[in-house]
């Protein structure tokens, strides 16, 4: 407790009784009023101890308060970008008085999903994609995972849901079974994370799937045209070549015979 001069009185501090809403990284301004009920002017200093990462952007912590009057100082603080949800209290002190500035940090649930180097192509009957799910909010969050794809591929994850802390990142492996795909082409894998507050975050990864060569029967991939060549027959002129080609369709039907005699 400091010594008071003759005619001086203790200077009470007044701050808002209602908690001030606060968001990480966003400047917040609040008034601090110091009253001087005495009969002499007083120069007063505020003692404001800020937590790590906080910055006093605007405001003087030392000022003169006229006798029988008051002084209101507007202080602007910048909190760190990452703040946990909940209540924060900052004590203010003068030489003979104190007060507490209260802040309220609302819950902000946010996540980010990213595919980590998904394969650009795949020639086997399966592949995996690693996804990273990051908690970019300010509270513990539970996410429920869902994966889907097109073209008949089967998908599964190594985990269905989990709860993680702010700033934490979890790896999730997605297994894609492409054994039922018979035609080569792109496969779109959609990965979604649903939060308890109803928000849903999705991302996609594309992989070109090359269908195995034995995925289709031979008759569906090729048409075979056996050719019979007859050289020097009686019906041919000297030096001429007679060709007979037999075309057989997929289902062993529609036989056709073509003859050519125009080879020199």
Description:
- The model is unreliable at 1-7 and 245-264 (pLDDT under 50).
- The protein has one helix and 22 strands.
- It has a five-stranded mixed beta sheet, with no helix packed on it.
- With 264 residues, the chain is an all-beta fold.
- The radius of gyration is 40 Å and the shape is rod-shaped.
- The longest helix has 4 residues, at 218-221.
SSE topology sketch:
Blueprint: E1 13-14, E2 20-21, E3 28-36, E4 42-45, E5 47-48, E6 55-58, E7 62-65, E8 69-78, E9 86-93, E10 98-105, E11 111-116, E12 121-122, E13 126-135, E14 141-149, E15 154-157, E16 161-164, E17 169-177, E18 185-195, E19 200-209, H1 218-221, E20 227-231, E21 241-247, E22 256-263
Parallel strand pairs: 2-10, 12-19
Antiparallel strand pairs: 1-3, 3-8, 4-7, 5-9, 6-8, 9-10, 11-13, 13-17, 14-16, 14-18, 15-17, 18-19, 20-21, 21-22
Strands in their spatial order, largest beta sheet = 12-19-18-14-16
CATH topology of the largest domain: the name is: Immunoglobulin-like
Helix content: under 10%
Q: Give the amount of beta strand, in percent.
A: over 45%
Q: Give the distance, in angstroms, between the N- and C-terminal Cα atoms.
A: 122 Å
Order of helices and strands: EEEEEEEEEEEEEEEEEEEHEEE
Number of helices: 1
* Outline: rod-shaped
Low-confidence stretches: 1-7, 245-264
If classified by CATH, what would the architecture of the largest domain be?
Answer: Sandwich
Number of strands: 22
Q: Under the CATH scheme, which class of the largest domain? A: Mainly Beta
Q: Could you describe the largest sheet, including whether it forms a barrel?
A: 5 strands, mixed
